[in-house]
Amino acid sequence: METTIENQAFSYKNQDIGNGRGVYISTYGCQMNVNDSDRMYSLLEMANFTPVDNPLEASVIIINSCSIREKPVHKVYSEVGKYKRLKDQNPKLKIGIGGCVGQQEKDKLIKNQPLIDFVFGTDTIDTLPDILQNLIEQESKRKEEKSKIVKAGFAHRDPYHVETLVRNPGVSTFVNITKGCDNFCTFCVVPFTRGREKSRPKTHIMQDIQTLAKRGVKEITLLGQNVNSYESECGTNLAQLMKSIAVETPIERIRFTTSHPKDFDQELMDVIAQHPDKICEYIHLPFQSGNSRILNLMNRGYTREEYLEKIAMIKKTIPNVVLSTDIICGFPGETEEEFQDTLSLVQEVGYETIFAFMYSPRPNTKAAKFEDQVPEEVKSERLQRLFESHNKMAFELARAYENRVLDILVEKKHDDDDKPREGMIKYSGRSRQNKLVYFEAPEAEQGMIGRTVNVKITKAYPAVFRGEMVGSIN
Prior knowledge:
- This protein is an alpha/beta fold.
- It contains 15 helices and 18 strands.
- The strands form 5 sheets. The protein has a 5-stranded parallel beta sheet, with helices on both faces. Strands 14-15-16-18-17 form a 5-stranded mixed barrel.
- Strand 17 and strand 18 form a beta hairpin.
- The radius of gyration is 23 Å and the shape is globular.
- The chain starts with 21 loop residues before the first strand and ends with a strand.
C-alpha cells in the first residue's frame, strides 16, 4: 500500500507506539521479496509485534527491496527520505532495511543514511525479532548499540532451519523451494545477495503445502531464483516434486517460477502434461537476449537455437501453453543488429506477456566492468521499441480469449468507485493461464472467495480481462 506521507497530519494518539511494537513493511522487487515480507510478518507476530497497514501507525518501518536492477535501490533511498517527517515527529521510530539491497548495500546505507537504525540480509530474516527487541531494550543507548545490532543481523544462519511462514496466505501463495543461484550470469547480483544455491528438503515443502491447504490455500507457486534446478537431499527434482504435490496434496493449482532454460527438460514437461487438472499450463521462461553472442557474454549457458528448441519441446508437449519471458535491452556491446534478433525471437515464440528492462550495471557483476556500455538513451529507445513491437501481438493474442469461458479462482472482492450493476458484486481472480479477470456475481452467491467459477470473457486486454460469471465449478 502506498501512503503519501507529505500530506498527512501526524498524530500518534491511540496507536501502539509506546511499546514500539507496531510494524509496517514496504516491499519492492520480485516474488522472493514478497515471500520474504510475509515471513518477516509471521516471525514478528510470533514475537508479539503488531503488523499495521499504514506507516503512520508504525513504530517500526522496514523497507524490503531487491537490488537486481538499479531502480529498486534508488527507491530505497527515496523511501527512507519519505519517512523523515515521521522520524522528526517520533524520534523513537525505528527504520530498517532488508532484502537484497540490505544484503549488498549495508555499508553504504549505514554510512549515507543516518535515519536508518538497522540493516539485515536475506539470510538472516529469522534474526529480525531479536534485532527489534534489542533496539527496544537499548533505546537509551541507541547510537552506541546500532553498529552491534547491524553486525548481529549478518550472522550466518541456516535460512531453512524453520518451516516456511506465511502470515495471511489467502487463496494463492508462494512456497519457496530453493534459495540463491549458482549460474553467475554476468548481469545478476543474486549469487552475491542471496548466496549459492540451496534446495529445501522435500519433506519440509510437503509439510508446508499440507498446512497451507488446511488453511484454505487453493493455489501455490513454487518459488526460486532458478526453480527448475531444485534437487532435494533425497534426489527429488522439480518434476518429481510437482508430481508428488499433484498426487499427494489437495492443492487445486500448481505453478512455478522462475525457470532457467538450460535446466528445462522433457521430464518436467511430461509431468505437467500428465496432471492437467492441477498443474497450470502457464510457463515463464526468460531468454534475456535473442542473440547467441550476447547470451554468451551474459553467461546464460544456451544459444538462441537451443532456447528455441526448448520452446518447441514445450509447445509440442503442452499445445495450449501460455508463455511469458524476461528480456534485457542494451546489454554491454549489444548492436542494433543483435537487438533485432531479440525483436524477432519475441515474434517467433509468441509470448503473451513480456517483462523487459534496460540493462543496469550492478556491483560485483562482470558486466558492470565491460567497456562497451550502451548509452542510456539507446537502451531507453530499444526498450520502447520492444514494447511497441510486442504490443500489437499482445492485443491480438488477448482478443482470442473473448467469448471463451475460463476457470477463474476467485481471490478478491472489490468495493471501489467502479460500482457493479444493481444486485451484483465485483470480484477478481486468475485463470489457469495466469490472466487477471474481473467479473460480477449475484449478491445471492455466498462464499465466493476461494471458489473456482466459470467466467465468459467479454473484453480482453493484455494486462486484464473482464467477463461475466456463467456458472461455478466448486
